[in-house]
TrEMBL record:
Organism listed in the record: Chrysochromulina tobinii
Alphabetically ordered keywords of this record: ATP-binding, Ligase, Nucleotide-binding
Native organism taxonomy: Eukaryota, Haptista, Haptophyta, Prymnesiophyceae, Prymnesiales
BP term (GO), one: microtubule cytoskeleton organization
Similarity section: Belongs to the tubulin--tyrosine ligase family.
Keyword ATP-binding: yes
Protein name: Tubulin--tyrosine ligase-like protein 9
PANTHER family with a match to the protein in the record: TUBULIN POLYGLUTAMYLASE, TUBULIN POLYGLUTAMYLASE TTLL9-RELATED
Single GO molecular function: ATP binding
Length: 380
């Protein structure tokens, strides 16, 4: 028996009303569901908005019982590079203090990382101990590979420091993260790749997490090697589609992606089913453990849900590494296959979130392409 519809849902017409600040696949999905677009800043049932709009408007808004919005208020605790690292390290230390050593050991899925400028002294000590290692520098607040570079000499950092306002006593200091570069990535056909995994969180208290079965691997179009000559070659080292699309080897029809299914079949053929299943089980654990690390600092709100894009890299021992988490993974399609994946993904997001109040309130383990991978018991 279907439960009573939430008061206010659909307004006077009964049709779900949406507000959307994008004009890509998400807009197509909202319209395809038969929902009605509205221009109102406040009178809608579901809003899919960009982070800038959220930052400017959320704190001053009062949301009615029926309204749903696609970001948590302080999503940046997970999705800003420096905050992610701080929260992972903080949670790992807390587990160690509480004597939960086995749980703390699970947090070995991110490379050695420092936040600059705050950790510059610690970074220099580590750099000197890891003689000859390659490091990667990333602006904490930028995406799509902007501002990223590799280096293996401190003198290269000295040159960079002269050109950047990042000193800790400057109010507008630009924050960076510096990580040990994964120099032994798993290669396919001699080329580097990473994986985009989609995770949907419908609540942080109690933590409720869904994992999407589909996703993709993003490939560099150039053969991988780490030499002094090619450290500055972003086409070799960065797999971001935004970067690869600008390269001379890019084919618009073919793109630079494999489906997750294609990648799994390749891995099973080369390494066997057991090793492949173990790898994807470890990736699922990374998603859950990273969310547990931010659960207590995230502001839970029953109006909010969020779909994250997890970027995972695999090394040549089949160990997965968390590279970053995106609050606004790209919903623009590069190819027809990309569009089909993202359309299905987003359509299934709304089925899980149950904007239309079709579910009976029970927690479904499988909805569309999503699987429920973590559901904490609400202690309240």
């Amino acid at each position: 028996m279907q439960r009573e519809r939430r008061s206010g849902l659909g307004g006077s017409s009964g049709t779900i009303r949406f507000r959307c600040t994008f004009r890509n696949t998400i807009y197509d999905v909202l319209r395809a569901r038969g929902w009605k677009e509205v221009e109102s800043e406040t009178d809608w049932d579901v809003a899919w908005i960009d982070k800038d709009w959220l930052r400017e408007n959320f704190d001053s808004m009062h949301l009615d019982e029926h309204q749903r919005i696609n970001h948590f208020r302080n999503h940046y605790e997970l999705t800003k590079k420096d905050n992610l690292i701080k929260n992972l390290k903080r949670w790992q230390r807390q587990l160690q203090r509480e004597g939960r050593e086995e749980e703390a050991k699970k947090y070995d899925f991110f490379p050695v990382t420092f936040v600059l400028p705050a950790d510059y002294g610690l970074f220099v000590e580590e750099f000197k101990q890891q003689s000859g290692a390659t490091w990667i520098m990333k602006p904490a607040g930028k995406a799509q590979g902007r501002g990223i570079f590799l280096f293996n000499k401190l003198s290269q950092i000295n040159d960079w420091k002269k050109d950047h306002k990042w000193k800790s006593d400057e109010p507008q200091a630009e924050i960076y993260v510096v990580q040990r570069y994964i120099e032994n990535p798993l290669l396919v056909g001699g080329k580097k790749f990473d994986m985009r995994i989609y995770v949907l969180v419908t609540a942080y208290s109690p933590l409720t997490v869904y994992l999407y079965r589909s996703g993709f691997a993003r490939f560099s179009l150039y053969r991988f090697e780490t030499t002094a000559k090619n450290l500055s070659d972003t086409y070799v080292h960065l797999t971001n589609a935004a970067i690869q699309k600008t390269g001379p080897a890019y084919d618009k029809q073919a793109g630079c992606k494999w489906s997750l299914r294609h990648l799994k079949l390749y891995l099973m053929g080369k390494y066997g089913m057991e090793a492949t299943d173990r790898l994807f089980g470890e990736i699922q654990d990374i998603c859950i453990n990273s969310l547990l690390a931010v659960q207590k600092v995230m502001i839970n709100d029953k109006h909010c849900f969020e779909m994250y894009g997890y970027d995972i890299m695999i090394d040549d021992t089949l160990k997965p590494w968390l590279i970053e988490v995106n609050a606004s993974p790209s919903l623009t399609a590069d190819t027809p296959q990309d569009y089909e994946l993202k359309f299905g993904l987003l359509d299934d997001v709304f089925s899980v979130v149950d904007v239309e109040d079709k579910l009976d309130g029970a927690q479904e383990e499988c909805i569309g392409g999503f699987d429920l991978i973590y559901a904490a018991i609400n202690a309240e």
